[in-house]
Design brief:
With 337 residues, the chain is mainly alpha-helical. Helix content is 75%, strand content 0%.
């Protein structure tokens, strides 16, 4: 099983995770008049397939008890369930976030959902697996939360109009954030095990990062068959959509869905593997900087801020500075631990 040999390598993996988590949605943007509920079928398959690919390659390198299949066989059944449940819950949260963006706009959806998930997920994960300086980690999370708020403020200040805020949309975003924050502690528990042994790469009964990623993405994929049909019949935003639209879509749209899932799934594997070195609270907190990457794509590739007011650009600059400070504080949290 491959794991990073140094803090610098683990930190690089968490940053690459941030890039992946902030970039996957571009594949959906490249489709035209294609409903997210239909795109999500291929996306769900993509995240599971790429986690399997990593499990049978890097996760099985050098063989031994810590490689994927032996670890899967010896893992505690309850911990396998925790990882799959984490994926199931995360999938619901992710779909609700997209619906929330449609309903109230990015300016409100991101600060509410990602902000809640960032604080809740990091705090709960730290309580399960305290690693690093709690004070510095808290300061880093606070700066990341400030950056998320700056993102929303920057979009609101663009002067390009917006989506009317609704109580229903705000509630959807809050529920999304609460559910998304539950995902991290469940994965932390699955990888930590019931009887953690710091001298071992993987504690007895616990899941390796690659096994955790496979079970988590399997849970997310299975969730598609439960939650997605409900949203297709009774969407939170827009008209009901039929599965016939999926089969009528161009092959390129299905490829984009699989690619989007593969990109997000790659980021997830990198995050879990890095967590073996720095701890999941730290890797999760850095990974949740993904809105910064999504904003960069919006600015540079999709020109979402073309003609925006000067105030909007100032908020963007403040957002990037806040995230850089958050990254530095979280890195120092590990060093001080």
């Amino acid at each position: 099983m491959f794991v990073p040999a140094s803090f610098a390598a683990a930190l690089l993996m968490t940053i690459l995770c941030t890039v992946c988590w902030g970039s996957f949605a571009n594949t959906f943007k490249l489709t035209r008049n294609y409903r997210f509920e239909l795109y999500y079928w291929d996306y769900g398959a993509g995240i599971f397939l790429v986690s399997l690919a990593f499990a049978f390659t890097l996760g099985s390198a050098t063989g031994g008890l810590f490689s994927f299949l032996p670890n899967l066989r010896q893992a505690d059944a309850l911990l396998l369930f925790y990882a799959a449940l984490g994926g199931f819950i995360f999938n619901i949260a992710n779909v609700l976030l997209v619906a929330g963006i449609d309903m109230v706009g990015l300016a409100i959806a991101f600060p509410l959902s990602i902000g809640i998930a960032l604080v809740e997920g990091t705090v709960l994960s730290y309580l399960i697996h305290p690693q690093g300086s709690a004070a510095l980690l808290a300061a880093g999370v606070l700066m990341a939360l400030v950056a998320v708020i700056f993102i929303g403020t920057a979009y609101a200040a663009r002067g390009a109009g917006g989506v009317v805020t609704s109580r229903k949309g705000t509630t959807v975003c809050i529920v999304s954030g609460v559910l998304m924050g539950v995902f991290a502690p469940l994965i932390t528990k699955a990888m930590q095990g019931s009887h953690p042994d710091p001298s071992l790469l993987v504690s007895p009964g616990a899941l390796s990062p690659y096994t955790a990623a496979v079970l988590m993405t399997l849970g997310a994929f299975l969730c598609c068959f439960v939650f997605n049909p409900i949203l297709m019949r009774k969407p939170l935003a827009g008209a009901p959509v039929s599965i016939s639209g999926y089969f009528a879509a161009p092959a390129g749209y299905h490829a984009l869905g699989l690619l989007g899932g593969a990109i997000w799934g790659t980021g997830t594997v990198l995050n879990f593997v890095a967590a073996r070195f720095v701890g999941l609270p730290i890797s999760y907190a850095i990974g949740q900087a993904s809105p910064m990457i999504a904003t960069l794509w919006g600015v540079l590739a999709f020109h979402e801020f073309r003609g925006a007011r000067r105030k909007s650009w100032l908020y963007l600059a403040a957002m990037f500075l806040s995230y850089l400070l958050a990254l530095a504080l979280i890195a120092l949290a590990y060093r001080a631990g």
